[in-house]
Amino acid sequence: MGFRHNNVLHANHFRKDWQRRVRTWFDQPGRKLRRRNARKAKASALGVRPLTLLRPAVRGQTIRYNRKLREGRGFTLGELKEAGIGRKEALGIGIVVDHRRRNLSEEGKKLNVERLNAYKARLIVFPRKAGKPKKGDSSADDLKAATTRATLQIPEGYAAEAPRKITSAERDFKAYRTLRISRANQRYEGARKVRAAKKEEEEANKKK
After folding, report:
1. What angle do CA 81, 87, 92 make, to 5 degrees?
2. Whole-number CA gyration radius for the chain
3. Model pLDDT for residues 78-128, shown as the tens digit of each residue
4. Which domain of life is it from (predicted)?
């Protein structure tokens, strides 16, 4: 039913029994305690494991942040292959895999391979059954070693260079001119190759 003309709007309160339909939250502290106990029980059932999953060190996307290293989504398949870790094995030992990520530099790939190797060196894999260790499980001596749940820290983005005097070669170097010349060389490289090939062909024809 629509509203027309300048009529008074009805204020009909039909005296609904709203108290039966209202949602209360008086059990919030009890639920909090129950969730906490459930987390404790799950952690004790899972045994000793790192606090967080291992993720790669990647650079920020933009010019503003690409000098900083941060945690990425997951390791690439190439990085896992270099470190000698299988894709399914990685998921079982707390390493995150991202099949969509690509390695665009050798330095970044090397950094993450080193990160994986350091993680492998510190890793202790407990066998499911104490009397029947499988391939990949740690030895009896390793199981007795002290364990830590702390994760590997993200390395520094670059090593800070100590202050030094500017050399004469650096002072005389013209960065802008070098960039312009290299850009021009790249632009005219194809035309120069064509011209050189044409010249060689003409000289070959003259010799005939």
Report:
1. 130
2. 33
3. 999 999 999 999 988 889 999 999 999 999 999 999 999 999 988 887 777
4. Eukaryota
8 lies in some domain: no
Q: How does DSSP classify residue 189?
A: H
The answer to the question of residue 22 being in a domain is no
pLDDT in tens, 42-78: 888 877 777 889 999 999 989 999 889 999 999 999 9
Question: Which residue is it, tokens 């009896």?
Answer: 140
d(CA 97, CA 76): 6
Q: Give the residue carrying structure tokens 């995150």.
A: 96
CA distance 91 to 97: 7
Structure tokens at 30: 């009890």
Give me the amino acid identity at 78: G
Cα 181 from Cα 174, distance rounded (Å):
11
* pTM metric for this prediction: 0.58
Identify whether 141 is part of a domain.
no
Q: What is the token pair recorded at 27?
A: 């059990």
pLDDT at residue number 8: 82
Are residues 64 and 119 located together in one domain of the fold?
yes
- Structural domain boundaries, residue 116: 49-123
